[in-house]
Predict the 3D structure of the following.
Amino acid sequence: MAFGSAKFLKLSANEFYAKLKQGKLSSNCYWFHGDEMLLVQEAANLVREQVRDQGVACERRVFYADLPGFDWQSFLLAASSGSLFSEQRILELRLLEQKPTVQILGYIQQFLSQNSPDNLLMISSQKLESRLQKHKIFLALSKQCVEVPFWPLQGRNLQQWLSQRARTLKLSLTTGALDYLYMQTEGNLLAAAQELDKLALLYEGKPLDEAMIAEHVAQGARFQVFQLMDDILARQSETVLRALAGLELQGESEVLVLWGLLRDIRLLLKVKSGASEAELRRDNVWPRRMRLLQQAARGLSVSTLERLILECQKVELMIKGVNPGAPWQALTRVTCVLMGLKGSEWYEKQ
């Protein structure tokens, strides 16, 4: 069985969800793009799930076009080559960290010109610039793909999204709880999704009011620990030190910050030892983080990173009350060394 013939169809996000639910989408090319990368990636997941729900045996291949030195020829060869293990294939082209260019449009056009009807191509990318959408190559492509742009959710649309996602996760939230969550995570859809996932693990099926939400939602998305780790790698020193101070004032646990630091220090050691991009991807390192790790690793020695692991082990004993000391101060010192701040040379001399 082949996928449906590709044809032009530009849909809004709501139209896409409705047609997918009704089973009225059947194409062998989808292009999802926009500023909200969570929505872009989840749209591709929904199409993939629909294909699998139909009982179609599919091989899946993902092409990370953001990676340095990405081999476009391997992507083009996939258009005409078949699968040894299944009737059909789902091929995903991801451009999550860089914006599509005219050259990339050319590669996609060439792929579609030789694409087998047994291949489903899904493209996930950042927002397409208006000038690019007017280019003759894109106008030709638009006749071969179902295109779905995703715009940032704001106001009522964001509130509806939060409410729907909460219901899907079997969370029962009062109006006040939803309003609080909306105010705390507005402008950061990924942070909102993470908070709902965390609440679902803790309170599935139980009613939640504003006071209960407030206990578990971080005060401001900028203090999210995962963002903090990225800021450390990017050496955004003022942002990092302010975030650490904010987490301490909020009474947040030092454990999650320690976990994040240890994880990144070990990843930095892998980079220093020459780990390949494929190895880092197995550790769930996305292209943007990969570049941050590679950049940060250049300014750090293996001996410094090994000493920082020992320092983190000391912090763990402080947190457990085994050793004396102030965990937040120790975490801040480790962070300063990672960022190469002046004044942290003391560590190199130990």
User: Anything to note?
Assistant: Residues 81 and 116 are 8 Å apart (CA to CA). DSSP finds 18 helices and eight strands in the chain. The domain at 9-150 is CATH 3.40.50.300 (Rossmann fold). The longest strand covers residues 88-95.
